[in-house]
Amino acid sequence: MASEATVSDATVYVVDDDRDVRKSLAELVTSIKLPVRCYGSATEFLDDFDADLPGCLVVDVRMPGMSGIELQEQIRRLGADMPVIVLTGHGDVPMAVRALKSGAVDFLEKPCRAQTLIDRIQHALQIDAQFRAARARKEETGKRLASLTKRERSVVEMIASGMTTKGIAAEFGVSTQAIDAHRGRAMKKLNVATVPALAVLVAGAKGS
Fold first, then answer.
1. Range of the domain at 154
2. Does some domain include residue 54?
3. C-beta separation of 138 from 204 below 8 A
């Protein structure tokens, strides 16, 4: 299971083809006691990218080769959900819409106030920590569900769908006591104490 990341574990990744901008942003990030890694191009960043590491990306929209928005879209295609803050000196509405539709948490025009960017970075890192915590919980739930027998899994899914013990017993042609026993063992394995909690857990595992 992936460990649950916190903001203090995270790194701020800066991608900008302007060396002076990279230096300025790095100094800003280190001023709030966060680690920072800087890259001069989207390709350079992708060569070093590890989706398992917590953090957020601050990227310039206009760069030689792959643009910031194209980089953002490529990260999504890789199955990663790292929060992205897009910076531009030439912002327009279509560009902003594309960035936000691709999952950017912010689209800021240069120059922006240092405190504004700090606030956005901290917000992005909080989002990243929440994503990772939710993913870790889902992975743990998946492992617990995998520990159920085939009959236990069927019973809990029927319970989660709203079926009664009597109805499930009739479906399988067994006694209600047998269904209660399956349910009890399943709830113990899943570490839930109530039927509503069981239903929430199963629904969450299905992504509903």
1. 147-205
2. yes
3. yes
